[in-house]
Amino acid sequence: MTEHGLVTQLKFTRSEFMRGLDGISAADGITRFEPMNCISWIVGHMADQENRYWVERAQGIHLLPELNALVGHGQPASTPPLQDMLAAWRQVTAAADVYLNILTPELLNSPVMAHEKPLPTNIGTQILRNIYHYWYHLGEAAAIRQMLGHKNLPEFVGNMEHWQYRVLE
Fold first, then answer.
1. What integer pLDDT is reported at residue 22 of this predicted model?
2. What does the alpha-carbon distance between residue 58 and residue 63 come to, in Å, rounded to a whole number?
3. Averaged pLDDT for residues 46-60
């Protein structure tokens, strides 16, 4: 089965997120320019969203429930180790892909379920929210890297040749 185009775009967005973080040291990963969070927090925060959406809600698996208290929306600022957050992100996105890879157009129109109740949105819209959330924080991470004095940062969306849009038949 070919993955849905929205899933392809989420995976492309993830690859751009990682490209934008390439070469960050452990020390720079936890440097904070208030009121912004640090880059390690951003990585963990994105892992937390994917964990909640695609692992906990979609699959009923409680993979890394501690992420929400550490880097979840509305939680106090924290500076978790960058390597820990990258490892969590990799673990969560691998688990999320198990679900994302089976989505069909019909499933994308299904309501998102939380605590066995439908939320007022559908799975396709949740994927879009996840994609847009990544781009928001990727821009924030780029600004932090500029403030840290990093040079030769990615300037624009990267190579999309492997992430072509296609209509599912």
1. 93
2. 12
3. 96
